[in-house]
Amino acid sequence: MWKTAILILSVTSAVWSGVPLERQNLPSTPRQEVPVSGYRLPNNTIPLRYNIELTTHVHDHQSPNQFDFNGKVTILLRVLEENVQNITLHYRQITVTHVKLADATNAVLVDDDSSFTTDVTYEFLVILAPSVLRIGNYSLELEYHGELRTDNGGFYRSSYTDVNGNTRWIATTQFESTDARHAFPCYDEPGTRAPIGLKLTHGNAYHAISNMPIKSSLPWNATYTVTEFEDTLAMQTYLLAFVVSDFAFISNTENKQSVYANPVSISNGDLNFALEAGVKVTNALENYLQVKYSFPKLDQIGIPDFAAGAMENWGLVTYREEALIYNSTKSPMGQLKRTASIIAHEYGHQFFGNLVSPKWWSYLWLNEGFATLMQYIAADKAYPDLRIQDMATVEALQNAFQSDALENTRPMNSYVETPTAISALFDDIAYDKSGSVLRQLQHAFGDTVFRAGLKYYLDAMQFKAATPADLAAALQRAVDAHQALPSTTNVSDIINSWADQSGYPVLHVSRNTDNVITLSQERYLLKRSRDAVKGTWYLPYNMATSQASDFSSTLPHDWLIDQTVELRPSAALNWTNDDWVIFNKQQTGYYRVNYDDKLWELITHELHHGNHSSIHHLNRAQLIDDSLNLARSGHLKYDITLKLIQFLTKEEEYVPWASLNNGLAYLNRMLAGSNKYNLFKKYVWELVEPSFHKFGLENKPSDTHFAKLVRNILINWACQVGSEDCLTQTNSQLAEVVSNKTEDIDPNLKGVVYCNGLRNADSNTFQYVLDRMHRSQDPSDRMLLISALGCSENTALLEMYLATSLDETGDFGYRGQERSRVFSAVYVNERVGLETAMKFLDANAATIDRLYNGGSFGGRAIGSAVTGMARRVVNKEQYDEFLAMSTRLEFAGYLNAGELSTAKELSGENVQWTNTYFNVIESWLEANVKSGAVRFGTASMMAVTTVATLVAVLL
Fold first, then answer.
1. CA within 20 to 30 Å of 780's CA: 85, 561, 614, 862, which one?
2. Which of 952, 925, 745 is nearest to 868 (CA)?
């Protein structure tokens, strides 16, 4: 499943506490699951097959039962133990009306409407047998009815407005992680599989699609059609999907792929790119993994109302429309990259998660970590010109570093039971950290060995439930065959060291006068304690030096297993005390690197006065991100960092600029209240100005994708610090749109122009853009405009804008997932946005909780929003107000204790930083930045977090 939240801002729902484990105490096998209790099924019976029959009336707008559905499921099951009295299944928000139970001889044991009980808390449906059931096979038939939900979960309804202004409803599904039980009573756990047969009865004017090809579609009467599908292979219930709609589609019959969307959305773009990308990505994955896709067809469909970004249902991948539809003339190049990446992520799941599933949600990273890795590998192979694999560094690894640097972050292996806790696992740890740790293994073992291990894993575990031990065994087999590890090191210990303990290490590098390099590791925390936080990981390390500046091989020089090791020059790898050294080539290892002051000085000298491109562009990005965050956490002096990043005056590559964009955003936010703020703006302008003038404010036909992205970063920062050229041109471009002198702006610049133009716009201009957003039926355009409207610095306009997100009349046309996006767009907008959003949340928590849930925050709207807001608290006054609000929200039940703890840690760390480093940076700026006149405009500052937001959207 694609994690939507990263498209707007980086938030973490990690609420787990964890203590780093000493290496000698690490288990040699993955942690054992907690004994079955509470929400887990007893698993003394298992399904052998499901036959599902569902009837929906969603086509009939005149029927009072339009949103009702009727169902019957027949489950062939097996009793595994003696003395089983009851059969326990999952159910949710449905009414069971009849139960029939028969044994293998077809002798009927139960045939009534009362031989069952329900437990709403644990969501159990318990079938009561008249006597003890013997080991063997049974047939259980259940009749029930329910209602299509409105929260984008389970079997739910969505709609679009046709060309005549009529509302057209559809019935669709979203079952991950625990919502299949809403469509039919079932064994709704990821490690349980069975083939599924499906019949859907629906209106004649509609059609039905599901995971498998259609077996038959025949009229039932003058109004309804019955569509029956081929049986699935053995699969998990959460991967079942079906859609009843009147959507249009295109197909590639040779490759048995199709793409569906509603006709109005298609008029705003087309489905050709999604179809092309689907075929290319499938070929890339099959070639890389040497495993064939296992279902007979693979469809994609854009759903108007959709909580996640996309969902990997086996054979029928569902998406938010904005993620699937691409307009070659109106969409920015970043949308093409984003669509390719999302498709690659979901198609990666067809192998990791679908073909091989995790035994329990504790191991969600076996799904999402691999899908994250495959999104970069497969999309890059499908579209090499986009250089998508380079983006893994800044999008996944450096993003995960932020969430994983908190004291209460959770480990990759995390046991949970409740549906709420399971949903909370879909976070930066499951996606970005896990994908980055797997990328580390790919480079540490070598791609050939890694691929061989994955094939062993997929072949051995296909159609089965796996644990990390199964992955380790497969990789070990490949490692042994190629002798890719020291004989004293095994894969299981490596994986456990990263998956069973929270956080990640910083590798400290120092060199003494005898030319000996000492390496040591400790856990990296944003809030650094006085004593080093011990933790030992199996850390693969390699290095490049000024004498051996080849960054191409990412195989490890060795593994740091203990906390410290010494390195001496050798014939293969030599250095002197005057040579720069860089560890973690191409930042493929999941750890930060900190050097002693002398080594930082040598690296800085090479970047400033040597050939900066002699250091790989991904390592230049690493140096920027590591130095900014090491200074933030007290591991490094800020004067070293602020001097080092000045090499960006000659940087043209995208990934280093993206790393600066993220790190500088924090400094800007924290220094906005300083009386030396103008010096900081001048410092930033000196970094940006050379490239800003070189790239200009207009895209060129020869521009690469990366060149377009760099230009957006430069424009945002130039306007941010008050460049008159930037402000004048962006304001005039928006003014021309408002006055109808031009239809619109270059799609690759549209986000930055609208945001900067709206920053100080009057109410008429703001209302014009707001009306345009509401009229638009292009989901990608709506996403961009929703984010841009949050850039306004007018409190009254922001208050009005937030109020529209609570509209229930339909006048504003918001979909469920868009309401929370409005709120995000406002609170990321510096002080004015944050404080306006805090007041709005405090006053409207009940309504926000009801309307926002089911949107991009997936059922924990307020918890996720509070975590995001906590990152933007910058002083004691804000902290006190924020903490008081958060405490009230917890008392009212809108926050849980873990979410409140995370919010306190994030906001408290910011306040501590202000107390510690505010004066330090002010003094450095005063000593190193001249206060001479710069050609700036007089407009007030745009929120830098909005800059980062828009760049993320454009990616």
1. 862
2. 952
Residue of 321, 346, 689, 890 marked catalytic: 346
In DSSP terms, which residues pair with 258 in a beta bridge?
A: 251, 299
CATH 1.10.390.10 fits 351-500, yes or no: yes
User: In Å, how far are 155, 206, 333, 339 from 266, measured between CA atoms?
Assistant: 24, 18, 18, 15
**Percent of the chain whose predicted confidence (pLDDT) is above 70:** 92
Nearest CA-CA partner of 403 in 503, 535, 496: 503
Q: Is 313 annotated as ligand-binding?
A: yes
Indicate if 346 belongs to the active site. yes
Helices (H), 253-397: 263-267, 272-289, 321-324, 333-349, 365-382, 392
284 annotated ligand-binding residue: no
d(CA 410, CA 469): 20
Q: List 582's β-bridge partners, or say none.
A: 544
Helix pair angle (816-827, 779-789), 10° resolution? 30
What is the SS3 assignment for 299? strand
Measured CA to CA, the distance from residue 121 to residue 88 in angstroms comes to 14
Q: What is the pLDDT of residues 85-134, one digit of tens each?
A: 999 999 999 999 999 999 999 999 999 999 999 999 999 999 999 999 99
Q: pLDDT grade, residue 529 (50/70/90)?
A: low
Question: Is 268 annotated as a binding-site member?
Answer: no
Mean pLDDT score across all residues of the chain: 90
- The structure's pTM equals 0.92
Helix (H, G, I), strand (E, B) or coil at 544: strand
What are φ and ψ of residue 552, in 5° steps? -75, -40
Q: How many of the other CB atoms lie within 10 Å of CB of 229?
A: 23
The predicted structure's pLDDT at residue 72? 98
Domain ranges of the chain: 47-246, 351-500
Question: What are the Cα distances from residue 62, in Å, to 58, 67, 169, 434?
Answer: 10, 11, 12, 49
